[in-house]
Structure formats: structure tokens, C-alpha cells
Amino acid sequence: MTAVFISYRRATDRQSAARLRECMSKCFDVDDLFLDGYSIKPGDLWRDSLSMAIASSQVCLVIIGPQWISASDEQGRRRLFLSDDWVRREIEIALASSRTKLIPVLVQGAALPRRRGSRAVARGAAVDARGPLLGQRGPFGGPAIPATLRVGR
Known about the structure:
This protein has helices at 10-24, 36-39, 46-56, 86-96, 144-150; strands at 4-7, 33-34, 59-64, 101-106.
């Protein structure tokens, strides 16, 4: 079982994800942290590994950088609106799991995406912002993220 799954956009937020994992590894066992480049073993099926890790995690940290919602494919379509976007899929899997809490981690001055009318930014891809928004002070709020997550352990 994975305690914490880290979701991020590869093209824009890879460094933030790695730094978050490094920061969290000071308070969590690295086996309890899932970040694809570190956690998926050679020979493992990438899609299956992601799906199982998200569904079994207690927390899914969604790293939201300035281009998180505006990231586009080669045709100029916003990735978050495409059903094959893995960030969207990760969020949908987390929302479908009754055990996984979704927490946005705002980095590089990003703002939390707003809802458009009564629909979420993308179907099923709304981030639950009722919890604390982390990452506003220093690199990931210093010890705030690990301390906040350890409360539920």
C-alpha cells in the first residue's frame, strides 16, 4: 500500500515533484511515497502501477504549477479536458476511491483552478480545496506537508 501518491505534469512540474518527494522522505519512509520515476520498477506496467498506487493511497498530492491547467497537446487542446490525460486520470481514480484524500500543492505562484459555472474545470477533475493549501511558504511550506499528513496516520 502507498501512503502518499504524488501527481504532477511531467513537462512543467517534474522538479517540483522530485523536491516534494525529497522533502517528504525526511518524515516518511520512501516506500510510502509514490512518484512514478522512483517507484515503478523495471518490468512493471506503468499504467497498472499508477492506477493501483493511487487507488491504494491514503493521500494524493496534486502538484499544480502555473501551466497545470493550460498545458496543451500538439493540436492546442487543453490536456486536462482530454480523457487520455494522465493527470486527469490520476485525479479521477483518486476521487473514485473512498480512501484517498486529494490535496492540491500549489507551486511557483500557481493559483487553484476555478470552477466554471456548475461544472468542474474538467469532468471529474476538480481538486478538493477544503483542506489546507500547501506550498505557499518556502519550499512546500517547510515541514507543514509532512506534519499535516502524519496527523491521520
